[in-house]
Amino acid sequence: MRPDKELMERLVAADPLTDVERLSPEERREAEALLARLLATPIGPSTDRRPVRRPRVGRSALLVAGGAACAAAAAVAAIEVFDSGAPADARIVEKAVAAVTREDAVYHVLERRHATGRGFPEAGRTFYFESWRTTDGRIHGKEFAANGARRGKLRRETAGRLRPGSTLGPALTYDARRNTIYPSGVGRPDVGSVPDIDPFSDPGARLEELQRRGQLRVADTTRVGGRRAYRLVADAPSRWRSFTYEGIEYLVDAKTYLPLTQRVSVRIDSQPRYRLFTRYLVYERLPLDARSRAQLDLDPHPGATCAPGAAELRPGLGPGFADPCPP
Amino acid sequence: MFRENYALVRAYALRRAPRGVVQDVVAETFLVAWRRLDDVPDDPLPWLYGVARRVLANQLRAMHRGAALERRLAESLPVTGAGDPGERIGDAEIVRAALGRLSDRDREALTLVAWHGLSGARAARAAGCSRAAFAVRLHRARARLAAELSSLETSGVALKTDSLEVG
């Protein structure tokens, strides 16, 4: 054996610690208490709401406290040492919900979705969806096929308005294959269908609902595509109409609080579990002005046929909705 | 990041500091990471080790580093004085004693690779130097460790006495 190699092997064997990744129950409690304390600390540069630091001895005493006492001390530390107001988790959840529910904005989202689950029509498919929406229910979305790892051909485009408090509303849909504009609906009814493949489902509405129910918590931080992110989870099963959500997870950008990914696991009665993963390639908030409002209308399709009823539906969409089927 | 790296950062501190300050070092390291989230690279462990090293240096300076570190190294040695005086000191103890005689920089280079299992590139990031500089540092540290080992192995009984005096 080469002397260098032999020397390093002796050094490896001299490591005083073994099984370093296994923590005792007390050490795990210490870790969880520390994590709680960190999550209670305002994130960001030290000049931005830097925590009020107590003398070193006091902080040290808090940190070395063991077991349940340590967890309690950490909770005290969150209040006393870091001079925070509401619990940090709640603040993060509030910011995440606020980021996607502003009334003075048009949200532009480009997402890639992939569903799995035996027996569901969309299972195994990947598709792209681009949308513009407002919190008052106006929505314009385009569904694209996947072309390898990129967005492929436009399949259909829908613009409409969700009725207040409803997942449904009137809309016009352009079918690219038939080059025809149809009167249609936006959203999807809850009659034995798959809930979250609905491309019009709104992360803002879901996050707000989970927050209202007190089901959303901050699990940890992670990275998505080089960006720091909070993992918000609702792991308690929740019923919505005929669907049981077994797990919902959002990763939100730690700076903007806008969603980066969504992972949903749903069971519909006794059917197999259905999972949907959404990667938000773009999630941006545009100022609400004439330019962004124009994005809420169906794109012009000059050569398209307007199916019977399409022109009549337009007034029902409300004011400010451009007519794609002029006489 | 926290859950994936907590135990490893804790182990880093445990190998270098008295138990009494380990939890402080770990807490301070993750607090720095939390405040500087934007600076944390995709592979956070070497970066965390680098932070822990600086935190630890500050802690140890405050408590007379040299004495504390030697105490820590001595803690890992068996209290052989209470047993058979003729008992042979294990190889691990000799190696650790030799390691304790090296400079901080040499010891850091060797343990990042041998005890923490980092590759050269990751260890270089943890040590805060280029990969090439780290390779040179590691090479020289190995040579010095070999020399210290050779010296100790020719005076095994003396080692036992020295270690006990330090502890």
Task: Describe the fold and architecture.
The complex is a heterodimer of chains A (327) and B (167). Chain A has 327 residues and is of the alpha+beta class. Helices cover 25% and strands 34% of the residues of chain A. Chain A is built from 8 helices and 13 strands. In chain A, strands 1, 2, 3, 4, 5, 6, 7, 8, 9, 10, 11, 12 and 13 form a 13-stranded mixed sheet that branches. In chain A, helix 2 packs parallel to helix 4 and helix 3 runs antiparallel to helix 4. The longest helix of chain A is centred in the first third of the chain and has 15 residues. The termini of chain A are far apart. About 17% of the residues of chain A have low confidence. In chain B, helix 6 packs across helix 8. Chain B folds into 2 domains: 75 residues, RNA polymerase sigma factor, region 2, helix turn helix motif (Rna Polymerase Sigma Factor, Chain: A, Orthogonal Bundle), CATH 1.10.1740; 79 residues, Arc Repressor Mutant, subunit A, CATH 1.10.10. Chain B is globular, with a radius of gyration of 17 Å. At the A-B interface, helix 1, helix 2, helix 3 and strand 7 of A face helix 1, helix 2, helix 5, helix 6 and helix 8 of B.
